[in-house]
Design goal:
Blueprint: H1 4-30, H2 43-70, H3 74-106, H4 114-133, H5 139-166, H6 189-235
Helix pairs in contact: 1-6, 2-3, 2-5, 2-6, 3-4, 3-5, 3-6, 4-5
Amino acid sequence: MKQPSAFVDRMLYILLVPAMFVSLYLIFIWSPIEKQMGASQKIFYFHVSTAWVAFLAFFVVGYYCVLTLKRPTEDRFIKAGISAEIGVVFTTITLLTGMIWGKSAWNTWWTWEPRLVTVLILLFIYIAYLFVRKMEGTWEKIAKLSAVFGIIGCINVPIVFMAIRWWNTKLHPVVFGEGKNQSGGGVEPDMLVTLLFCIGTITLLYLFMMRKGIEIEKMRLTVRKAKSRVIEKLAS
């Protein structure tokens, strides 16, 4: 009989693979071409989807970091670390796709615009968080110390989202809302369907990576503990 976790992983995989192909079809064939930016606008679907998953990953980190400050456990420590690693990957992809999009829209690879700067700060915070996790010391002490960085990074996520609203930037577009009435430029219905499907697909990818990452990290922890026991026996 299959373990429940193995069944969940298999179902995620079965859903994820066709969802990726459907996403590519929706992006490059089904969704209309934007009038001003043309085909280059299609990177918007990757950019927004990876940004959403990066934010989701960091909220998960913040959740487990708060629990870790209350009572550190190896399970919480592992889950926070894996989610942070995935978040760093997707934040990097978000920045790269944003730069490509910016080159098409603003004719520059980078500008010190509030949204870009806050995303870059967010990336640096979580890179620091991952470095802190590698410090020498008892894992309980490292878990609590790194949890502080994880929570600070999580607090920065809503700042990233609100940056273009608070600082009224003229470069980064507000799509879904602007000002008190949140009346942004909006997207065409076909584009919205594609965007939502892509967000769902990348979220499935996050869940799959998260589960596999946790499984691998727990296996590593088991191997390290076994090695430690063998070394202790040989030393005695």
